[in-house]
Amino acid sequence: MGLRLLVFAGLLLLALGRVQADGGDLVTMRNGDIFNGTVARESFSFDTGYGVLSVPYGQMSGLRIGDADEPDYLLTRSGDRFSGRVLDHDFTMLSVLRASRKLAFRELSEIFFSTYSLPQREWLPDAALETSDGDRFFARLGTDSITIETASGMQRVALAEVERLDLAVRMDGDEYLARIVLKDGHVVEGEPRTATVSARTRYGATLAIPLRQLTTLVSGSASHEGRPDFFNQPLASARIIRDRLPDGSPAPEVVVLEGGRYLRGAVDGDEDEKPPKPVSVAPFAIGVSEVTFEEYDRFCADTGRERPDDSEWGRGRRPVVNVSWLDAVAYTDWLSRVTRQRYRLPTDAEWEFAARAGTSTRFWWGDEVGVAHANCEGCGSIWDGDRTAPAGSFPPNPWGLHDTAGNVFEWVADCYNSTFADAPADGSAFDKPGCGKRVIRGGAWSFPPGEIRSTNRWRDFPSRHSDDTGFRVVRELEEGGH
After folding, report:
1. 146, 192 in Cβ contact below 8 A?
2. Most buried among 12, 43, 238, 341, by the most CB within 10 A?
3. Structural domains of the chain, with CATH
4. Would you say the pTM of this structure is higher than 0.90?
5. Cα atoms in the Cβ-side hemisphere of radius 13 Å centred on 192
6. Interatomic CA distance for residues 410 and 388, integer angstroms
7. Cis amide prior to 119 (ω within 30 degrees)
């Protein structure tokens, strides 16, 4: 599903600009014919698998018809995205330059709808949902509560009290786990015993979503870049930058750090974390999250590069894995070219500075691993030792960065050196000719808590791919901090 929808979403953004200029919808048929005009249809019937939608013409943003063994994709102006099947048989295409004609949906490749400004009635959802199919949409919940079997027994949880709900099926397929963060900060984990959640969309349809197909539910109606604001928090001192790609889609979100001086390494750490050494770091901007499959797949679509395997965990918002250091560098080079900004991997010193976020404890939240702060083998999350978690599944550190501890190791720029004795004091990368191994940081879903410490360092061959390793980007700042 991922690449076809990703390319479609990118083309959609390009085409909408073209259509806006000449005032019509853009229809492309499978045989290559292109029609520009107005799709004369009041609404579109779409079977999501959870229920049937009837989306008004004025809410349509894009439509792609899949091949026989692939789903159709429907995108709306409100940022909703559904996969399934168009139930309508045909539509009439009106054009100023051509006679009107009837066209069959199954002979269609895609429609990019015009950006005419049509009046929209106000509609406030109470949740944002994401499914294992990649569907993302806002809804009003019709289910009042769900039942979770916890270690201490059955517990009924009112959805009105839920801030965020994550669900995961373990790799063996037998165990199905839920993690619920309540609005009062408490966390409930266990096996869900509720079969479905009822969700009413802005289009009037009520969908019955099997809980096993739901991956995330977030309370509230806030959205950013067409997606829910997962665990975003106000950061009074933070400034976020998000560049745009040529097709209008967003580059990875980065947070500006002012730089400073800190003590790198740990007296009680491994030998390659010693000796602790003062380091000065210049201002820079670093990824709020690890680069996701969704972001990396745009790079693959644009360059013709083969997409990395997702280990059957899903793509979308999960951090990209099975990428080498060379792949990560190629991504930052491409991002620099298409945005005309300077992107690169963080240096080892920059990474630790950002991960610590001004703290001096083993983990940014304290000296004890606790429960549900991160994804590692023994961190107390529903993904522990099994697979990656979607980006942003855990609260950010004090500087707004997610998953600097656990989830996936992250490539950094430095060549591996077993001591800090010769490490640069200015925060730049340590490198040498013929470097055989590069540094990876942060620990991963498959490693124990001791390996996700802020100071912990590992290394790997720069050409190696692994399902526990990804990366995040740094964006260099121009004069004036932009």
Report:
1. yes
2. 12
3. 2-112 (no CATH), 127-224 (no CATH), 240-475 (3.90.1580.10)
4. no
5. 24
6. 13
7. no
